[in-house]
Structures are given as structure tokens and as C-alpha cells.
């Protein structure tokens, strides 16, 4: 195991990480996008993005796109490279405000978190569409880890913290259990060549209806490219 520092809330840090990783000339077979914050007070990243959207979504969007050529080079017909992005059941109640992705008009910690998680599902489906159109040996899937007992809940109100403390043993998964579906997506032979799936408890399931809106997927992708300053590859794909 080797550690390389990368702050997903910083576009500069992400680009520096990618440079360091490229210098190693290693193949890249699996990328798991798993960083995140939840229901934090209204605040911005160093790039001026609302923190949920900037860290949970845009950070992973940029990182994945900058590593995409390495993933394509590493994948083969019989062993696809795999991208796994961790979303949440919260995406089911999320609404994507394309005219206010930074939640400037009306900030709600829960709403901003849910929007970032919905954006990750839309991103995954559009990414798989582009990978398929290009004939790439790379698959992209999105995972719901379930309710996991981690420090992600440190910003929730004290009532929720008390309930969590009382019921964690009954309803919360351990971190190991929470990681199982991501691991399944990353290494299971059953997932070889399968992309564009929403996985929960190691099974394919249906995401929110709005996540299948192809026009919304494209519009979010195009806007995201503008926000992080990269070329929009989707403009080349019909």
C-alpha cells in the first residue's frame, strides 16, 4: 500500500496528485470515488464551490476525467478497468438545480448533500454512455453503501446523533460492511463488462427516475466541464 495525498476539495491538489501518479507509470485498473462530507454548514471550497457540490461531486468529476486515459490504457477486452463512484440513497430525494448548482439562492445542508449525490449518479450514467460510444474497455458504476457507522455524521443535529448512538448496533452497518458493495463492484467477476449500474447490497437496483434523464445527464456534464476547466468530450459523441 502506498499513500499519495489528494484533497478532493481542491482542484489544484487534484491536478498535482494526477501528475504525481502519472510519474509512476503504473497501470490503473480500479478507481473508487469515495470522498465526501455530509450536511456541513454553508461554506465554500478554496475554488469557491459550495462544499457538498465541490468536494462530493466536482472533485470526483475532475479526478476521474484526468485519469480516464490511464484507465483506458489499462483496460482490456477480457478485463475492463473499473470506475466505482459512491453515492447514497439520499439521491432519491435530491433535486438538481442547474441554474443554482452552488445553492446560493436557498441553502439547505440536506438539500445540498442530496443534490451532490444525485449528481454522482447522473455523472456515472453519462460517463458510461461516453465510454461505450468510444469503445473503451472501462466500466463505470455507482454504489449505495447503505447507512454506515462513520464520522460522516458529525455535522448532524444532536437529536440525530443521540438516535444514531442508540440504534447504531441495530440499523447501521460497520465500515467493513459498508465497503462490501464497492469491493463487489471493483473485483467481482459478475461485474466484468457491466457498466451504468446502480448497486445496493451487491445487487443491481433502480436509481431515482430523474437520474435516467439523458438530457439532464448531458447538461450536467457540460456544465461540470466548464466549472472545472476541462474539454467537454461529450460534444464529440452523438
Automatic annotation (TrEMBL):
Record-linked InterPro entries: NAD(P)-bd_dom_sf, Sc_DH/Rdtase_CS, SDR_fam
An example Gene Ontology molecular-function term: oxidoreductase activity
Keyword terms, alphabetized: Lipid droplet, NAD, NADP, Oxidoreductase, Secreted
The protein's annotated pathway: Protein modification; protein glycosylation
Recorded superkingdom: Eukaryota
Signal peptide: none
PROSITE patterns: ADH_SHORT
Subcellular location: Lipid droplet; Secreted
Primary location group: other
Pfam families: adh_short
Main enzyme class: oxidoreductase
EC number, as in UniProt: 1.1.1.441
SUPFAM superfamilies: NAD(P)-binding Rossmann-fold domains
Coiled-coil residue spans: none
Family note: Belongs to the short-chain dehydrogenases/reductases (SDR) family.
Identification of the protein by name: Polyprenol dehydrogenase
Organism: Crotophaga sulcirostris
Amino acid at each position: 500500500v502506498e499513500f499519495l495525498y489528494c484533497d478532493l476539495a481542491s482542484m489544484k491538489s487534484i491536478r498535482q496528485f494526477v501528475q504525481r501518479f502519472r510519474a509512476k507509470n503504473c497501470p490503473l485498473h480500479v478507481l473508487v470515488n469515495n470522498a465526501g462530507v455530509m450536511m456541513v454548514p454553508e461554506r465554500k471550497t478554496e475554488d469557491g464551490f459550495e462544499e457538498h457540490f465541490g468536494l462530493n461531486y466536482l472533485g470526483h468529476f475532475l479526478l476521474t476525467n484526468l485519469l480516464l486515459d490511464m484507465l483506458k490504457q489499462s483496460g482490456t477486452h477480457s478485463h475492463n478497468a473499473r470506475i466505482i463512484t459512491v453515492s447514497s440513497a439520499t439521491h432519491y430525494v435530491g433535486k438538481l438545480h442547474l441554474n443554482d448548482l452552488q445553492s446560493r439562492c436557498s441553502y439547505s445542508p440536506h438539500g445540498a448533500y442530496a443534490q451532490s449525490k444525485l449528481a454522482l449518479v447522473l455523472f456515472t450514467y453519462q460517463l458510461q454512455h461516453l465510454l461505450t460510444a468510444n469503445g473503451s474497455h472501462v466500466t463505470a458504476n455507482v454504489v449505495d453503501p447503505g447507512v454506515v457507522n462513520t464520522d460522516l455524521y458529525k455535522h448532524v443535529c444532536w437529536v440525530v446523533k443521540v438516535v444514531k448512538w442508540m440504534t447504531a448496533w441495530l440499523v447501521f452497518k460497520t465500515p467493513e460492511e459498508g465497503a462490501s458493495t464497492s469491493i463487489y463492484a471493483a473485483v467481482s467477476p459478475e461485474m466484468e463488462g457491466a457498466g451504468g449500474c446502480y448497486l445496493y447490497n451487491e445487487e443491481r437496483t433502480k436509481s431515482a427516475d430523474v437520474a435516467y434523464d439523458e438530457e439532464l445527464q448531458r447538461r450536467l456534464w457540460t456544465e461540470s466541464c466548464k466549472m472545472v476547466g476541462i474539454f467537454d468530450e461529450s460534444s464529440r459523441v452523438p
